[in-house]
Design brief:
With 355 residues, the chain is α/β, with parallel strands linked by helices. The protein contains twelve helices and 14 strands. A hairpin with a 2-residue loop joins β10 and β11. α2 crosses α6, α4 packs parallel to α5 and α10 packs across α11. The N and C termini lie far apart (60 Å).
Amino acid sequence: MAIPATATKKIRVMVVDDSMVARTMIIRGLSAHPRIEVVGYAINTLDARNKIPQYRPDVITMDVEMPGQSGIDFLRQYLPTHPIPVILVSSLNLKVFDALAVGAVDFVRKPDEKSSSETSFLAALAQKVVMAATARVRTSAPIAAGPISSTSLTAAKLGTAPGLDRVIIGLGASTGGTEATLEVMKRLPADIPPMVIVQHMPPGFTKMYAERLDRLCAMEVREAQSGNELRRGLALIAPADLQCRVVRIGTRYTVNCTSGEKVSGHRPSVDAMFYSMAEVVTCKMVGIIMTGMGQDGAHGLLEMRKKGAYTIGQDKESSVVYGMPGVAQNIGAVCIQASCENVANVLLRHLKGLG
């Protein structure tokens, strides 16, 4: 039986990096992948702009900071009219979030003496390139660096209804999730019930991501540490490379962050967090699953729904990758689907009903 042409067609990749050492490493590593063909490279964004029509890449890998025009400015100008999936290759730098805000699909941390090895870096990059080939490129205006004013928030305060003091919200996301989660969080009020968030991200970035959300959103956002108590107005981001689980101590709830084994292929894992909520939370629960590759979180969300949780899944049309929310929908884990822009409204309507 003949194999469909789409199954054998290689993903055409263009590498953009001003460092010859980095370019050589990336080209060599990606070329070894059976599904990837590196069709060319560029040494800066101007070079890339000139060569893209020639190479016609399916996916671009791009350094964030290069001489001349930055990768961020290039993406802001180029992607609205040429929506090519871009994977960022970045050092530990806050600017990666600005690049994601203007349309990059995902990012990988460049290896250094303190972070991952070259082998694990190339494996992660290849995996993200394969994913990006089918991703939906979403472009938007970058979000201002300062906090959002209270008048710009779409949600008024929830108030002091006793029912809202006994609610815990879990949210999980992966590819495309840094901006999707922000899209939800910036629409929520300062007195939101406690939230625990798992976003797949390389080590070093979760603290910066929490600080970014804390600046841009009405509630307090912190990177989780073991023992942090869940309370209204606080959202905790699971630390990279640690499993984050909800723990009940009497009538209080805290989080436990441990190294542990990977769950559903990830650490932190959305499934690990959702399963812990299904197991220990005796008050009201809400589970939200956002854009991401694979199925992490889908089965944990199903367990939450079986325990009476209200569950929300991001819809296909607004997802960068409709993997995690798609599986959750297919197995019956989702009570309601909503666009990225409408998840917050769906959540708030549910919470006001509990109040």
